[in-house]
UniProtKB/TrEMBL annotation:
The lineage of its organism: Bacteria, Pseudomonadati, Pseudomonadota, Alphaproteobacteria, Hyphomicrobiales. This is Acyl-CoA dehydrogenase. Keywords: Oxidoreductase. Residues 20-127 form the Acyl-CoA dehydrogenase/oxidase N-terminal domain. GO terms for cellular component: cytoplasm. The keyword Hydrolase does not apply. It holds the Pfam family Acyl-CoA_dh_2. The keyword Amino-acid biosynthesis does not apply. Residues 245-386 form the Acyl-CoA dehydrogenase C-terminal domain. Belongs to the HpaH/HsaA monooxygenase family. One of its GO terms (molecular function) is flavin adenine dinucleotide binding. GO terms for biological process: fatty acid beta-oxidation using acyl-CoA dehydrogenase.
Amino acid sequence: MRKAMSQRDAGWGAGPSERYEELAERFRPVFAEIRATAVERDRTHGLPHAEIGWLKEAGFTTLRLPVEAGGHGASLPELFNLLTELSQADSNVTNALRAHFGFTEDVLGSTAPEWRARWIAKIAAGETVGSGVSETGTAKVGQFDTVVRRRGADRVVSGKKFYTTGSLFADYIHLSADDEDGTTIVAAVPTGTPGVDIVDDWDGFGQALTASGTIRFDDVVLSPDLIKPDPARFPYAMAFFQLVHLATLAGIGRAAAEDVGRLVAERTRIYSHGNAGRTADDPQILAVVGRVRGNAYAAGALALKAAEALQRVYELHRDGGGQGTEAEAERAIALADVEVNQAVTVVTNLVLEATTILFDALGASAVKQGLGLDRYWRNARTIASHNPRIYRDRIVGAFAVNGTEPPRQYRVGTA
C-alpha cells in the first residue's frame, strides 16, 4: 500500500508534536480503508463493526494508555489530531469511539488503584466501552429514570437509555443511574449481560451509523467489580467530550475540502458563462475551493489549540493533583472550558459553511447519491446539534465581562 501523505505535505499544517507523524503513520492505512467504504456504508446503512475492529487491531483504542501498560502514551493534542484524521475518513467511527476515549480518561484519572489497574488492563487488551448515560424520559435535570436497586445481596439495574453511541460495537456500556436514595451510580456493564438489549433505532439524518439508539436494562445484575468506586468523572470531562465533536467537525471539513478539490480537477464540462476553458482554471471556482479548504484548516487549528488547554489540565491533575496546587488545577479546568466554548460556534460555522458552499464549485451531478457529498453537511449539522452552540457565546461573554466560569456539567431533562 502506498504510504499516506503526511499532514504537513497535505497542507494541513504540522502535527502537535515532533513524533506525531511517526505515531500517525501506524493508523493512516486503516483510515484509508475506512474512507474507501464510507460512502457505500452511508448509503446502505452498513454499520462499522469491521472498521472499528481494524482500529482495535491497530491499537488505536489504546492511544492514551502509558507505553508500559500496552498503549502509545499519546498526549491529548496527539489524540485529538488523530481523531480529526479519523473523522476525515468517517465521522461516524469517531463518534462511535467517543465514549470509549472518555472512559479511558476516567480510568487514567482514577484515584482507586485496583479499579484503575483492572480497567487499564482491559483497555490494553482491546476491550472498548460505549455510552449509556443519556435518557429521553421524564427524569428531571441531574437525575435518571434508570435505577439501581438492592435485591438481596445483589444490585440490579432497570431502565432505558438513548443516545447510546458506540455501545452496539463495544464490550462494555458506561452506565450512569440513580440508586433508591437518589445517589448516582456509575458502572461498566458487559454488553452481553442477560437483560441488556441494545437496539439500533437511531434515525437521525446524520451520523446514522453510530448506533446512537436505545438500550434497555431489565433487572441486570451488577457485580461489585463493575461499579466505579467514585462516580465523579475526570475533571475536564465536559471540555473533552465537546472537543471530540470539534475534532470530528474539523475532519469532516478536511474530507469535504479534499473531495471538492479532486472533483473540480477531474471536471471536463464547463458553463458557457464561466471564466475559462477548463473548470480547474476558473478563478471563481478556485475561490470556492480555497474557501472550503481555508475553513477546514481553521477548524483543525482551533481544535488543536483547545486540546493544548486540556493537556495542561491533565498534567495538573495527574497523579492525584501532584503537579500543581488545587487552585491552579481548578483554574486550568475553567480556562479549558472557556477555550473549548469559544471555539464551538466558530468551528461549527466554518464547517457548516464549507459543507454547503462546496456544491457551488460543481455542477448538478454533484448531488448524485453515489458521491455522498451530502453526508458531510448532514453529519456536521447533526454533531452541531449536541449541546447547542447558541449558549456558547453567552457563556464566553459572561466570562469575558464578569469573570463567570463556564458550567461544569451539561445535562438534559425536565425542569
